[in-house]
C-alpha cells in the first residue's frame, strides 16, 4: 500500500498533484449524460492523464476505447490492460513503424493513423513483414497541423489504404484543435461546424465510394457536444473534460456563457508558501516545473484576488490586493492549473483524494512517453 493513503491532502509534501475523486467520477459520467440524446460515443484522449488506471475508469464509464497521442503512450496503455487504443499521431520513422506493427501484432485493439501516401506504403510493407493486417484510420487536416488535405486527396488515401492487402481501413479522424478554446459557446459552435464542412464532404465522398466508415472520430472538450449534427460522426476524443483547467473554464459552455461548467475542475496542485517577506506578495514552491507556464494563470482556490505567476522554474509568485486571511511561511495552498496535460506530464503520481484524504494513487505511467 502506498504510504500516502489516508493522509490529508493538506499534509502532502509539495508540489503534489491531486485529483478529487468525487469530481472525477462526476465528470466521467457527465460526458455520457450530456451526449445521451445523440448517436455520438466517447473515445477519450489519454494524453490528458497518461494513466492506464484512469483510462480503465473511462472505459468502465462507457467509453468505446481511448485515443493516445504517441506510440510510446499507446504502448503503455496496451501493455497495462487498456485494450482499445486509437493512436491519433502518425508513425513516420522506420523504427516507429516497426514498433507500431509489433504492437499491433501483440494487441488487436491497436489502431494507427496515416496522413500521406508514402507512409501508407511504408505501413503496408512493415505490416507485411510482421505478418499482420494492421488497422488504420486516415487523419484529415482541419488546422494545417496534421492530416491529409480534405476532398479528393483524402478519398484517394482512404482508397489506397483500403486496397493495400496488409492494411485494414477503419475510417477517419479529424481534430480541430484551434476552435476548442474559442470563447463563447454559440460562436465556437458556428466556427466548429464551418471548419468541419470539408471533413463532412470527405466523409460523404468515402461513403459514396463504398468505404468502411465505422470510425469518424474528432472533437475535444470545447466542441464535444456539437458533433451530434455531423453525419456519420461516431465519437469525441475529449481529454480535458475529466480534469478541466483554467484555460477551459474561461471559454464558456452551453449552460453558462461565462464559465464552462459542463465539467467541474478536479485536478489541483498542492503547494506551500516558502516566503512572505514582502507585503501583498507570497512565494510558493511550485513554478514552471509544477504548474506549467501556460496562460491564464493558475487559480488559487478560495482567493479570487490572488494572481499566480508560475514563470520561475522552482517558484510560484503570488501578488494580491486582498486576501481572505494572513498567510505564514509553511502554509499550504491549492491551485487549479492553467492547462492540465503538460502539468500531468511533470508528475510520477496523481493522488486520488476523497473528503480531503488520499484514497488511491494513480501512477502516471505515460509520463515522458513522447516518442
Ligand atoms: C488529436 C487530439 N484529439 C483530442 C484531443 C483532446 O482535446 P481536449 O483535451 O481539448 O479535450 C487533443 C488535444 O490536444 C488532440 O490533440
Protein model, in words:
- The chain folds into two domains: 65-233, Alpha-Beta Barrel (TIM Barrel), CATH 3.20.20; 267-363, D-serine dehydratase-like domain (Lyase, Ornithine Decarboxylase, Chain A, domain 1).
- The chain is built from eleven helices and 17 strands.
- The chain has helices at 21-34, 52-60, 71-79, 94-106, 117-130, 152-163, 185-195, 197-208, 246-249, 288-291, 340-344; strands at residues 16-20, 41-42, 66-68, 85-90, 110-114, 134-139, 167-174, 215-218, 235-236, 267-275, 281-284, 299-300, 307-309, 316-319, 332-336, 349-354, 357-363.
- Strands 1, 10, 11, 12, 13, 14, 15, 16 and 17 form a nine-stranded mixed sheet that branches. Strands 2-9-8-7-6-5-4-3 form an eight-stranded parallel sheet.
- Strand 10 (267-275) and strand 11 (281-284) form a beta hairpin.
- The chain is globular, with a radius of gyration of 22 Å.
- It starts with 15 loop residues before the first strand and ends in an 8-residue tail after the last strand.
- It binds pyridoxal-5'-phosphate.
- Pyridoxal-5'-phosphate binds at residues 45, 47-48, 67, 88, 175, 177, 180, 220-221, 237-241.
